[in-house]
Design goal:
alpha+beta; seven-stranded mixed sheet; 11 helices; 31% helix; 23% strand; protein-N-terminal asparagine amidohydrolase activity
């Protein structure tokens, strides 16, 4: 159940004449235009983006998640949790107001939303038998990668093309169907998170965020390469490999262990077909890589192509997934006294 400003948000039930996808579109647009949500978006837009570097993550205890990953963190063990690199993806934050336990996910497809939210909530609600109030629910990311007005053809409930809008619809619709009381605080998505670049292309205002686990406050954020850790390349590879690994169908990728404050990076297999495809992609010029490998070619960051080529170099060097995940066991990292991560096994 979705609440805005402490009030249960109206929603047409399944007996409505609108289709399920149209109901999701209607609900999303109604919530986005709520005065409280508009005010929260304006406030978020005016915040200064925080730049997270390795030196920051050594001073405080951070957890960073990549695309299609999620993490549930305990404020007693983790100071900040965050993500970035979202263009058509959306970052979701769900926080238990009683315990402060915070769950975040980097959602990249409607197909992982239903199971993904259940994964996120499994530990957030574990010690809360009353299934109480899930305060501080935020969505940040996604932008108007299509012209919604033209795409709907004048019909408010039509389903436009693009990537951001269908994902945002699915997220809000799935949260509405949950039994928990979900209080939406921030919905910095789509039009709220859209600007024009120098060439007149739409792009996101912010691509990431950082959550203070003690206070629950959220600020726009970006991370440099050294702070996107541990095991950056392997975790990036899992995003592509998980599409062909049936064990991850419809799920977010397990990455972090809440109780031990360790990264336990669950195994993921890949096929020689992926390796062969990567070899072909690696022959392409940079501009074709953008078109072939991104859902938002004009909105990607300056290191997108370099990141892709580093991933491909790893896969070409280690074409057999069992070299990365021997006996299909996870890769485990422990936090050291100075804030870095140590590979255990």
């Amino acid at each position: 159940m979705i609440y805005v400003d402490g009030v249960l948000f109206p929603y047409e039930n399944s007996s409505s004449s609108l289709s399920s996808s149209s109901q999701g579109s209607s609900l999303l647009l109604d919530v986005m235009t709520h005065p409280v949500i508009i005010s929260a978006s304006d406030s978020f837009k005016n915040l200064e983006e925080q730049r997270v570097t390795e030196s920051c993550s050594r001073k405080d205890r951070y957890v960073y998640i990549f695309q299609r990953e999620y993490a549930v963190v305990n404020p007693a063990l983790v100071d900040f949790v965050g993500m970035d690199e979202a263009t058509t993806c959306v970052g979701l934050v769900i926080r238990n107001r009683r315990s402060g336990v915070t769950s975040i996910a980097h959602m990249d497809s409607p197909e992982v939303v239903d199971l993904g939210i259940s994964q996120m909530l499994s530990l957030v609600m574990e010690d809360d038998s009353d299934a109480a109030e899930l305060d501080v629910v935020h969505m940040v990311g996604g932008y108007e990668d299509v012209d919604l007005k033209n795409a709907t053809g004048g019909d408010d409930y039509a389903k436009p093309e693009g990537y951001s809008f269908p994902l945002c619809c699915k997220l809000v619709e799935s949260l509405q169907k949950r039994r928990e009381k979900i209080h939406i605080q921030t919905l910095f998505i789509l039009g709220h998170n859209t600007k024009l670049d120098a060439q007149g292309n739409t792009c996101p205002i912010f691509n990431g965020f950082l959550v203070n686990t003690s206070t629950g406050t959220i600020v726009p954020a970006s991370f440099n390469r050294s702070s996107r850790c541990p095991d950056e390349l392997v975790r990036r590879i899992r995003v592509s490999a998980s599409f062909d690994d049936p064990s991850w169908k419809g799920k977010l990728l397990d990455t972090y262990d809440t109780k031990t404050d360790r990264f336990i990076i669950a195994p993921c297999s890949w096929t020689m077909r992926l390796v062969e495809y990567v070899w072909e992609l690696n022959q392409l010029p940079d501009e074709e890589i953008l078109v072939n490998c991104s859902t938002s070619p004009s909105a990607e960051g300056p290191d997108f192509i370099d990141n892709e080529r580093r991933i491909w170099k790893y896969l070409l060097k280690y074409p057999e997934w069992s070299k990365t995940f021997p006996k299909r066991q996870p890769r485990v990292f422990e936090r050291t006294a100075n804030g870095s991560w140590n590979f255990v096994f």
